[in-house]
Design brief:
Helix content is 39%, strand content 15%. It has helices at residues 5-11, 16-19, 38-46, 61-74, 85-94, 111-123, 165-174, 224-236, 243-254, 256-275, 294-300, 317-324, 351-354, 376-398, and strands at 78-82, 102-106, 127-131, 147-153, 178-182, 200-203, 218-222, 280-284, 307-312, 330-331, 341-346, 366-370. Strand 4 (147-153), helix 7 and strand 5 (178-182) form a beta-alpha-beta unit. Pathway: Amino-acid biosynthesis; L-methionine biosynthesis via de novo pathway; L-homocysteine from L-cystathionine: step 1/1.
């Protein structure tokens, strides 16, 4: 009997061989694994890549349980673990490229992903071409004989463009190109990567998987075709995580679905409120028609979360500072996915360095917010006070 979606998040990774009679798998810390016989040692050596206790860097039962859970949630054949999301991105790419290769990278990627391509990849002699997130079938015009990876991120970082992943995947596979997705926004809950043609789904588990802003953690779930290579290459590059962090990721999964639904409900209410504000030019929430790629969100996603952006009608750094300073419930911080609400601003000129082929070309300040689990009326009141400060600063500057 197939399990329902909600049930899956409760039972994933809770095989009896990991839980050993408890509700949650115990935290098993180990570097050295000791064996009672040569036969036992040989068995572990032969099966070291298949969730068998062999050496701490290969993982303990705590890691195996978390890997099982992520694989069950996202699909695929296996899950590699990394100390943060950026490490997951970097090592997934490094596992499949060599000097002379070419990468197609979405122009709206996470900023450290771009920095990795412009430094480490360039130093290795791997060339990167950035493409417009809304390119669709025209991606074929950018493919070269040496293109090895098509990297996607949907929705896009900061500006929230939703990509046509099935079309991009279909064209990439016709040229034997690996499709990678930064699926952190979808979190394995709202977007099923392997059902839409993705080969390797990457997450900063730091964000919604852990959900409490207290752990750095990355994951990459791969299809059967690419799992062995991703696993072994990542191992050779020394990638491993603390069992305590793996446990906290596993614990976060238990409430992942219910948290995401609350984040989504609250963020949509606030996004709709923002869309009516006189200070706001437009809202970039994937569930709203004003967001680029909204039609793909409706087609491919089963829900939203708390992260979206909106664009102000003007760009005045002093007024933006007045808006951001003295917020009661929205804190400024470089992350998202926790229970708390966050807010950050991007002035239009910043996109001159963040984008090379898909500059959004709006003239107002972009505000990215993460709607946490606070009462939405409190968050709206907080934003309303911020807009009062913002307008007062604008009036003072124009006087």
């Amino acid at each position: 009997m197939s399990e329902g979606k909600k049930t899956k998040f409760v039972v994933a990774g809770r095989d009896k061989k990991w839980t050993q009679g408890t509700v949650n798998p115990p935290v098993q810390r180990a570097s050295t694994i000791v064996f009672n016989s040569v036969a036992e040692k040989n068995h572990a050596t032969i099966n070291r890549a298949n969730k068998t206790l062999f050496y701490g860097r290969r993982g303990t039962n705590t890691h195996f349980a978390f890997q099982d859970a992520m694989t069950e949630i996202e699909g695929g054949a296996g899950c590699a673990l990394y100390p943060c999301g950026t490490a997951a991105i970097a090592n997934a790419i490094l596992s499949f490229v060599e000097t002379g290769d070419h990468i197609l990278m979405v122009d709206t990627c996470y900023e450290p992903t771009r920095d990795f391509c412009e430094t480490i990849m360039k130093k290795m002699g791997v060339e990167t071409t950035y493409y417009d997130p809304m390119i669709g079938a025209d991606i074929e015009t950018l493919i070269r004989p040496n293109t090895r990876i098509l990297f996607t991120e949907s929705p896009g970082s900061i500006t929230m463009e939703v990509q046509d992943i099935p079309t991009l995947s279909r064209i990439a596979h016709a040229h034997d190109i690996i499709v990678m997705l930064d699926n952190t926004w979808g979190a394995g809950v709202n977007f099923s990567p392997f059902e839409h043609g993705v080969d390797i789904s990457i997450q900063a588990a730091t964000k919604y998987i852990v959900g409490h802003s207290d752990v750095m953690l990355g994951t990459a779930v791969a299809s059967e075709k690419y799992w062995d290579q991703l696993r072994e290459q990542s191992y050779l590059m020394g990638q491993c995580v603390s069992p305590d962090d793996a446990y906290l990721g596993l614990r976060g999964i238990r409430t992942l679905d219910v948290r995401l639904r609350q984040h989504a409900e609250s963020s949509l209410k606030i996004a709709q409120w923002l869309a009516e504000r006189p200070e706001v030019d437009h809202v970039r929430h994937p569930a709203l028609e004003s967001c680029p790629g909204h039609m793909y969100f409706k087609r491919d996603f089963t829900g939203g979360n708390g992260l979206f952006s909106f664009v102000l009608k003007t760009s005045d750094p002093r007024a933006t500072t007045a808006l951001l300073d003295d917020m009661k419930h929205f804190s400024m911080g470089y992350s998202w996915g926790g229970f708390e609400s966050l807010i950050l601003a991007n002035e239009p000129k910043s996109f001159n360095t963040l984008r090379t082929v898909a500059n959004p070309n709006f003239t107002g300040t972009l505000i990215r917010i993460h709607v946490g689990l606070e009462d939405t009326d409190d968050l709206i009141a907080d934003l309303e006070e911020g807009f009062r400060r913002y307008q007062k600063a604008l009036d003072n500057h124009s006087a």
